[in-house]
């Protein structure tokens, strides 16, 4: 009789403990404070949770914190709530080490307990737009013009949007799953002639690709087979011409196509804007290449990697493999002010015919490379190892020195003293 009572008592205590923990980890629109005692419980309790691993002394962390506070209630109010949480990684080092945290702040998004690196925007409104994508249906079904407008407005401007007019959702469902983290997908079952005019297509079925932030759109009329449809979707994940900055450069991370990069003096100048229009026309005709541009005024350090600066004759065109190599086309290294459309055509023709010179991107400094490759903690480990090796080497040298009391030692000490006095000032100046 006593054993069942003990079991009942244990179950009561266990339920009470879980009940208090459930109350502690409720979705109330606030950023949760996690530590080693409740982290695993939070990850298993919520289907979608974004965790900020921060350090109290980190300036970037301090700037991020109010953005998370602002976004938390909006994300908690979604039909599929997304919870925001934070961990003091400087204090709970074991937890940080378990999740490979080597810099602050580091954001990780857990979907059904599975973590992924979060590399999206960190401003509150953009962060909300970005995360909403992960809890949306793979393919949204739209049944009217107003539903289409609401869908486009709710999707925001961060991701490209695909709308299939007169398409069955099964046609694009596989692609929607494949590119769920990169784009919105929908099919419009019912729409008016006004929608056809607005989205600039004249027959169905058709697939429209929108880039709201760049005010660009493309239309695909088929054939709706895997290879053709897949190529269209993949090529339109990027705008026709990508303006390169710290954020958009991430979009090229998984890109397999070569990048035709035009380096301008200043992106905002009228002549630069005219050239960008010509690049868009070239991009439409050459979908197997990614077209992009960067201004020396806007991002001088990046332009300098391709030997372009204020002293270079600009605009300059190169073909970049997205990594360490790029190619200049012999005879068309830069563009003149006149007839730039013809010069762009000559550049592309020269590249395809192999009239190129291979060059290497100017790399980062050694320390920048180490930081980006292995993280700050690994740097500390490397420094510690080097220090230990130097200490061991120093001890070894001391063992090899003559013993005190021998004439050699006295002579050696005398000569060392003389050399120290002679070179001491120079060492101090170094």
UniProtKB/TrEMBL annotation:
Residue span of region Disordered: 402-430
Keywords on record: Disulfide bond, Membrane, Redox-active center, Signal, Transmembrane, Transmembrane helix
GO MF, one annotated term: protein disulfide isomerase activity
Domain Thioredoxin: from-to ranges: 10-136
PROSITE patterns registered for this protein in UniProt: THIOREDOXIN_1, THIOREDOXIN_2
Bilayer-crossing regions: 369-392
BP GO terms, sorted: protein folding; response to endoplasmic reticulum stress
Gene3D superfamilies found in the cross-reference section: Glutaredoxin
Signal peptide range in chain numbering: 1-19
Coiled coil stretches, renumbered: none
GO CC annotations, alphabetized: endoplasmic reticulum
Pfam families: Thioredoxin, Thioredoxin_6
Entry-linked PANTHER family: PROTEIN DISULFIDE ISOMERASE (PTHR18929), PROTEIN DISULFIDE-ISOMERASE 5-2-LIKE (PTHR18929:SF215)
Similarity comment text for this entry: Belongs to the protein disulfide isomerase family.
Name assigned to this protein: Thioredoxin domain-containing protein
């Amino acid at each position: 009789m006593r054993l069942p009572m003990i079991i009942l008592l244990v179950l009561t205590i266990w339920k009470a403990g879980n009940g208090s923990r459930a109350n502690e980890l409720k979705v109330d629109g606030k950023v949760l404070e996690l530590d080693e005692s409740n982290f695993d419980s939070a990850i298993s309790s919520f289907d979608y949770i974004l965790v900020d691993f921060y350090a109290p002394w980190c300036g970037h962390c301090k700037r991020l914190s109010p953005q998370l506070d602002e976004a938390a209630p909006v994300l908690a109010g979604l039909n599929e709530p997304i919870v925001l949480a934070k961990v003091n990684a400087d204090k709970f080092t074991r937890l940080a080490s378990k999740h490979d945290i080597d810099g602050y702040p580091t954001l990780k998004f857990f979907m059904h307990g599975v973590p992924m690196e979060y590399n999206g925007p960190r401003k509150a409104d953009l962060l909300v737009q970005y995360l909403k994508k992960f809890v949306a249906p793979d393919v949204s079904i739209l049944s009217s013009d107003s539903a289409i407008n609401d869908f486009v407005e709710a999707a925001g401007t961060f991701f490209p949007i695909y709308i299939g007019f007169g398409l069955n959702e099964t046609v694009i469902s596989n692609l929607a799953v494949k590119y769920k983290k990169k784009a919105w997908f929908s099919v419009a079952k019912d729409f008016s002639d006004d929608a056809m005019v607005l989205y600039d297509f004249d027959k169905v079925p058709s697939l429209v690709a929108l880039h709201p932030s760049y005010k660009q759109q493309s239309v695909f009329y088929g054939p709706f087979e895997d290879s053709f449809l897949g190529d269209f979707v993949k090529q339109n994940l990027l705008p026709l011409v990508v303006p390169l900055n710290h954020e958009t450069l991430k979009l090229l991370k998984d890109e397999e196509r070569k990048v035709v990069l035009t380096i301008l003096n200043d992106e905002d100048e009228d002549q630069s804007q005219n050239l960008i229009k010509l690049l868009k026309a070239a991009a439409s005709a050459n979908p197997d290449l990614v077209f992009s541009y960067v201004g020396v005024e806007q991002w001088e350090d990046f332009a300098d990697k391709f030997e372009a600066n204020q002293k270079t004759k600009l605009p300059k065109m190169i073909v970049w493999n997205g990594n360490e190599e790029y190619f200049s086309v012999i005879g068309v290294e830069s563009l003149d002010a006149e007839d730039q459309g013809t010069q762009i055509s000559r550049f592309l023709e020269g590249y395809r015919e192999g009239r190129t010179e291979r060059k290497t991107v100017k790399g980062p400094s050694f320390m920048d490379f180490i930081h980006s490759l292995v993280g700050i903690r690994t740097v500390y480990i490397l420094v510690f190892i080097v220090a230990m090796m130097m200490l061991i080497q120093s001890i070894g040298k001391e063992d090899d020195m003559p013993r005190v009391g021998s004439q050699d030692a006295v002579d050696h000490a005398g000569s060392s003293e003389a050399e120290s006095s002679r070179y001491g000032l120079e060492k101090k100046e170094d």
